[in-house]
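Reproducibility note. Readers wishing to regenerate the assembly model reported in the main text can use the exact inputs given here. Chain order matters: entities are listed in the order in which they were concatenated for prediction.
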Amino acid sequence: MSIAHARHNELSLEADVLIIGGGPAGTWAAISAASRGAKVILVDKGYCGTSGATAPSGTGVWYVKPDPVLRRQAKESRYALGGFLADNRWMDRVLDQTYTNMNRLAEWGYPFPLNEFGEPHKRGLQGPEYMKLMRKLVKKAGVKILDHSPALELLADEYGVGGASGIRLETGEPWTVRAGAVVIATGGCAFLSKALGCNVLTGDGYLLAAEAGAELSGMEFSNAYAICPVFSSVTKTAFYRYATFYYEDGTVIEDAGSQRGRSVIARKLLEGHRVFARLDQAPEDIRPLLRVSQTNFFLPFDRAGIDPFRDLFEVTLRLEGTVRGTGGIHITDETCATKVPGLYAAGDAATRELICGGFTGGGSHNAAWAMSSGTFAGEGAADYALKLGQRGTGRRLRGLSSQAIAGRQGQTPQRTAEFIRAVQSEVMPYDRNLFRTEERLNDSLVRLDGLWRDIRSSSVPLTTDAVKAREAAAMTATARWMYRTALHRTETRGMHKREDFRTLDESQKHRLVSSGLDEVAVRTEQVGKEAALV
Amino acid sequence: MIEIISETKCTACNQCVNVCPTRVFDRTDGIPVIARQEDCQTCFMCELYCPVDALYVAPEAETPSGVREEELERSRLIGGYREKVGWGPGRTPVAQHEYLYQLYVKTNFG
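Running the prediction on these inputs yields the following structure tokens for the assembly.
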């Protein structure tokens, strides 16, 4: 599709840097790019301030004072869990940047609690408060925000990416932003599982990046599931460290737990058992503290008339995919650039293997990565775009979507819903995604490849229906990168579990980089000796 | 999922239309309507941003619960989340609550 001529009613804008996604990574990227003197536009599929996994909940942050002993412990704490794939130099950079950014948040007015010396205690952030402040800071930095304005495709010429176009959901009008550089900060992919705040996280940025020729890394680390009451959306798993898990008859399920015992819960569910939980191991004196520290964890229980400390409640495992996995867009340098000139990635849209290998185990690393990679990408994109200067505008750009996007006719919402159900049925079952085997991965891939061909050949109407149609395409592409990569890793490492290869294989201490749409390719990338934490 | 827009409380400020990340509400000439309830992800953000506590998100994420406004008023559940988070005039944000630090001291959480 040529965008040489502006379409009817089109909103057409120019900037140095376009940020796609307005969660923590996108907002940090926006204020960082603006601080370099760049003109910045931020578009969000939902609303910058409420969109994404961070906004509705509280999160810990990997905030560690620059003390060599404490930093060392912090880096070692999850190195083995992550399968030795993290990079020591990146962990140092992210710890430094996170320390700086959290201190900035205190200066900029985030209401941290105080310690006994009256100093702000900066180990966590309450999502609603944090993202309300970030939106305010973005606007104060002079950044233009377009809410409810999903990007449908990137624009590029032979020199690289030069903007994006999409649709405004409230009016149905198309938008185009020409920009010298684009930062993808669209989050991970949780496949519309209704994990808390995750239904806007459908892998959109992976698809946009891959259509431009970027690669992905670590997509085998994409099988995170959260413990969740069956009736609810609240997938905050941390407090289940205080839970005992029970069968229907009230007897205890041995070895079930929130840390390493999550597989036990999955196996019981697969065997057809119902699983119940109760936070009965929480000491009485900390119960009121827990209630305050994660108000939204208790909200559904309060409303359903359940006391989670005293009553049994039925639980399930909800897919969080790559949101709490570690795979994402492959980063090629310290500015969070991709291999495509002008294209950058930050937050959960980018691979988090650099700081946690193949396992995150909690929000604190993801929160640190979001604010740090957002800063790196925003600064890098601004510097790149400002160097382009006048050459950045007046380019002859074309849309990169692998599906035709045009007209008012195209894939119907019913057809889109069928595609979505089809991809969900391959990635949600525990015996396909959580516990993997060559046979079942291949079995799913046959259907996913067929699904991709159907999606690829159907056209997307340039109406608000386009959003879900592109989400279906992005989720299908994501599932294919996940499972192709999972086939290649013939071992168990990090969160990736192969039932036919149950142990870690020393010879596979490398990263797996995937790419391509019609044909998916997987290559290995060595983790350099200088990256090792020794 | 979202269940209630209180007709008696809503001032038609349309803040919920603006802030909903999955665009569940539509503007009208009067107060907004829940236009796409099935797209609700039960994130409770609309409730937090409603300045007059006119919204209620039921805890059930998968199916409508059919809860009625009169019951919620009796049980004082409507508006309860905003109060707990400490948003609204005269309230202190829960983000700076002393319990957050006490919990860290006792458990290393947060």
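We highlight two features of this model. Residues 1-5 of chain A have pLDDT under 50 and may be disordered. Chain A touches chain B through 53 residues (CB under 8 Å).
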